[in-house]
């Protein structure tokens, strides 16, 4: 990691790199509409090259912590990350820190901009969801020397510390469960994998396991839907209305799985008699659904708590070590999956 604030680039260094005055650099931040676009681009290139972050807390004593940790999530529109956010916040609050929560809408370019804003407020550490981020984001974290951690994904050889599960394994376990029940006619619904390494890893893990079993998923049975109940229901309704339809659905998470179940009911299909459905996540309410959802449990509370503890420990260290925690997954067999009708006992 880079050295702390006393060695970071200041506004004078940016001005020299851009060949403009310090006042022009300041104007680019505060009143960009008053600066020539060509000049703004020169300043922006210098800012990114040097990793400069303006200090909105300049009045604070040098070296004083802000007692805040930034947590950037893809979305706060639904409860997917609710448990991990709550567990993370509880863990850091126990150490005297407060969470600054922000979202980027699955847009990694926007994530970089959000990160810059959090660093402008001099957060003491940053937590990100997943391990897929833009090179600019990784570079900025390195240049600023701010302690950081990735939540939700675990990968050996990660660029930054991480606490999470192997999402490819989650997809593999979901596929294996359906295969074990004798299902061969399997459809999938996953969100777009752009900027979402969790979804990509789950999908890839599932497809590899299906291919190993000699199962080919027709292109028309590979459907995309965001993590949205209404859109998942609509996508599943179109798929299940086909003359030739799957007998089992492997879903990218529990929200999508719930949408599939609603679609099946709308079409008069019984779950699991006519259609088996499996999700990934084990969100709150999945066990209380009717029928209760079979899913792969990702231990969100444990992930959030461990990540909070690790980022607090990193902040207290002069040279924090890279840490990686792998959290175990569990197959929860409930009422939405059953043996394939084509398999005799």
Describe this protein's structure.
The chain is of the alpha/beta class and 345 residues long. It has eleven helices and twelve strands. It has helices at 11-18, 22-30, 37-50, 82-93, 108-120, 135-144, 167-180, 197-212, 229-240, 254-266, 300-316; strands at residues 68-73, 98-103, 125-129, 148-153, 161-165, 186-190, 222-224, 248-251, 276-281, 294-297, 324-326, 330-332. Strands 2-1-3-4-5-11 form a six-stranded parallel beta sheet, sandwiched between helices. The chain has a six-stranded mixed beta sheet with strand order 7-6-8-9-10-12, sandwiched between helices. Strand 3 (125-129), helix 6 (135-144) and strand 4 (148-153) form a beta-alpha-beta unit. Helix 4 (82-93) runs parallel beside helix 11 (300-316) and helix 9 crosses helix 10. The termini are far apart. The model is unreliable at 1-6 (pLDDT under 50).
Element layout with pairings:
Blueprint: H1 11-18, H2 22-30, H3 37-50, E1 68-73, H4 82-93, E2 98-103, H5 108-120, E3 125-129, H6 135-144, E4 148-153, E5 161-165, H7 167-180, E6 186-190, H8 197-212, E7 222-224, H9 229-240, E8 248-251, H10 254-266, E9 276-281, E10 294-297, H11 300-316, E11 324-326, E12 330-332
Parallel strand pairs: 1-2, 1-3, 3-4, 4-5, 5-11, 6-7, 6-8, 8-9, 9-10
Antiparallel strand pairs: 10-12
Helix pairs in contact: 1-2, 1-3, 4-11, 7-8, 9-10
